[in-house]
């Protein structure tokens, strides 16, 4: 458990490092229609890391993907690392999330959509990215659905002392993301060249994790090393993360650092439906079956991508 490593004499733990309290390797599993995900948050060993419900490193090659499915009560954040994904929803919202680009979707009261490799993916067989599910507090669960989309070239970026940062949410050294988060969240994509390091502030009471994408690094202290596909849960009791590239092959270290303010409410999840009580889940299942309370437009809607694959 997170124990204060050294006493600073300050009850607020200012200037204390956060340490890694749990390390998980994300194995591959099958999800959707022929898609492969490495799930770290949201699997049996780590059901919920308030406010984070799921973290999937996904890979889809045509013909595969995530055909028509509903969401209610949370947000999905899709960040493409390679290739692209076509999304279509029952409200008529449609688009392609390209390499390096971001879609921050507030499902709120309800959306039915598909997420599939785009047909003109020009022979790119591997479309890879990260999808993070962030819970919404009870007062935001039933907001109108909305999207925030940012192309790669418009994602805030900064570089200093061998550290490159892409600011997905929150800010780094005064460089701010334009994403509005309903659940206060920071999401930084770090690329550290060999020999470089960071000391990154994280709000004291937030839950925070690292997910390593590439290379090798140390996180928190010299005892904690990790490589690609590992999730590191950071303990409480500190206001910053120290990390450094410890690759011995001269490769960059790439990882995301994500933090969020815990919601501290009861959470009941039924797949892509996340509410506070079982009654609200039962109501949601009713709404999906009867096309009510936000699911009206799903009655006659089928995504083009899944239709083209003959999935109906
Ligand atoms: C799914 C419910 C879902 N991980 N990573 C049930 F919503 C999904 C689903 C996804 C998903 C989509 C993308 Cl683009 C990336 C994802 C789960 O759509 F797979 C199941 N089984
Ligand atoms: Fe989805």
UniProtKB/TrEMBL annotation:
Gene Ontology terms: cellular component: nucleus
The family database entries (Pfam families) matched by this protein are listed as: Pirin (PF02678), Pirin_C (PF05726)
The record's GO molecular-function terms, alphabetically, read: metal ion binding
Q: Which CDD domains does the UniProt entry name for this protein?
A: cupin_pirin_C, cupin_pirin_N
- How many and how are cofactors bound here? Binds 1 Fe cation per subunit.
Q: Which domain of life is it from?
A: Eukaryota
Enumerate the spans annotated as Pirin N-terminal domain: 37-134
What is the protein name given in its UniProt record? Answer: Pirin-like protein
User: What organism is this sequence from?
Assistant: Thlaspi arvense
